[in-house]
Amino acid sequence: MTPTMPLSGLKVIEMGTLIAGPFCGRLLAEFGAEVIKLETPGEGDPLRKWRKLHEGTSLWWYAQARNKKSVTLNLRQKEGQDIARRLIEGADIVVENFRPGTLEKWGLDYATLSAANPRLILVRLSGYGQTGPYKDRVGFGAIGESMGGMRYVTGYPDRAPVRVGISIGDSLAAMYGAMGALMALHHRHATGRGQVVDVALYEAVFSMMESMLPEFGMTGFVRERSGASLPGIVPSNTYLCGDGQFVVIGANGDAIFKRMMTAIGRHDLAGDAALADNAGRVARTGELDAAIGAWTGAHSIEHVLAVLEGADVPAGRIYSIRDIVADLQYQARGMIEKHRLGEHDEVWLPGVVPKLSKTPGGTRWIGPRLGEHTAEVLGGLGIDRAMQADLRTRGII
Fold first, then answer.
1. Which amino acids are annotated catalytic?
2. Dist CA 260 CA 275 (whole Å)
3. pTM (2 decimals)?
4. Domain locations in the chain?
5. What distance, in Å, lies between the first and last C-alpha atoms of the chain?
6. CA distances from 44 to 30, 77, 102, 331, 370 (A)
7. pLDDT score of 76
8. How far is residue 357's CA from residue 331's CA, in Å, rounded to a whole number?
9. CA torsion, points 384, 390, 393, 394, in degrees to nearest 10?
């Protein structure tokens, strides 16, 4: 028997496109929530056409929209807004990532929605949040990553700041949105009342910036780009091996550092009292990186990893997606899912995170066709086939 998922019974209405809002909806859907995604008739979420396509549909779409129901609804038309209100009256959570003011313009503001459904939780994801002098600006993940401080510290000091290779700002905001929704649900259990969860992309990024703010506030220190190293925590860096591959080594624990130096034959450094703690090692960062680099440069990455694993030193190669798919740990943990796509093809999706021992999440179906569930969902509102046909002719659904 399939175990009950932890969010089974929750109804979520997802309004919005691309990454932040839909990824938030995806996280809830993966753990059993019924997520009804509202899409513009004839167009759908632009993500359906992004990056690599299979027969006209993005491969990314199948992961981002898995376990969701697709309903076409024109929210720019009054009849579409009326149908949305009816759906929301029976919902637990609404997720949206429009520019602030858009829901208000459509008559879907929280005051109106919560008057009909006091238990409603509204998750709002935007570039700058729902308040403040910047709230009306257009905000994308790239801007949030820049304003939040991430871009400034990413890359090498002699070059322009670089981006992380994924839309990390959007995804961080989405995770905070899902977490906020669950917190609001817990509060609702006690009070019976919903609330608004307001997530700004730049704030989601800023919250990840570790010690940057207290260091600046106390000492005026501004963290700069440092390439592959981790300044102030030594040794923790990326080193070139003799076969041209790179290894990441984190030997910054006091006991770990001593084990590593012993394992690579540098007993002089292992026994040096001045290097027994992180502060002493930071003062000699260049010397230690040179010693480790000389050792890794003389050996293949396989030899380096074998020696360090034998000494219980955290180390690893830098994985490409090809490495990930071939890795035994990924396979053992069910992180490479394979699903049928049409009659002859197969789509691979990342496994669900986190792993719950009693009520695990999962992939019940891959991303749906545009409007695949419109008839089912609107039928549940009492809108019969004839009425739906009329709405479809007039571009409402």
1. 170
2. 13
3. 0.94
4. 11-207+335-393, 236-319
5. 37
6. 21, 16, 18, 33, 6
7. 96
8. 18
9. -120
User: Residue 93: is its pLDDT beyond 60?
Assistant: yes
Task: Judge contact between 172 and 112, C-beta under 8 A.
Answer: no
Q: Over the stretch 246-256, which tens digit does the pLDDT of each residue have?
A: 999 999 999 99
- Say if CB 29 and CB 36 are below 8 A apart: no
| C-alpha span between 223 and 215 (Å, rounded) | 9
What does the alpha-carbon distance between residue 205 and residue 141 come to, in Å, rounded to a whole number?
9
The 10 Å Cβ neighbour count of residue 55 is 7
DSSP string, 65-84: TTTEEEEE--TTSHHHHHHH
pLDDT band at 3 (very low <50, low <70, confident <90, very high): low
Pairing of strands 68-72, 57-58: unpaired
Can you give the length of the chain in residues?
397
Residue type, 58: S
CA pair distance 243, 241, nearest whole angstrom: 5
Domain 11-207+335-393 fold: Rossmann fold (3.40.50)
* Percent of all residues in the chain with a pLDDT value above 70, rounded to a whole number: 99
What are the distances in angstroms from CA 2 to CA 62, 350, 355, 359, 366?
Answer: 22, 20, 15, 9, 18
Q: 125, 21 in Cβ contact below 8 A?
A: yes
Tell me the CATH number for domain 236-319. 3.30.1540.10
User: How many C-beta atoms surround the C-beta of residue 215 within 10 A?
Assistant: 14
Q: Assess contact for 116 and 86: CB atoms under 8 A.
A: no
User: What pLDDT, on a 0 to 100 scale, did the predictor assign at position 1?
Assistant: 43
Task: Give Cα separations from 235 to 147, 187, 251 (angstroms).
Answer: 30, 44, 5
Residues with Cβ within 8 Å of residue 210, at least 6 apart in sequence:
none
Q: Distance between CA atoms of 364 and 66, rounded to whole angstroms?
A: 7
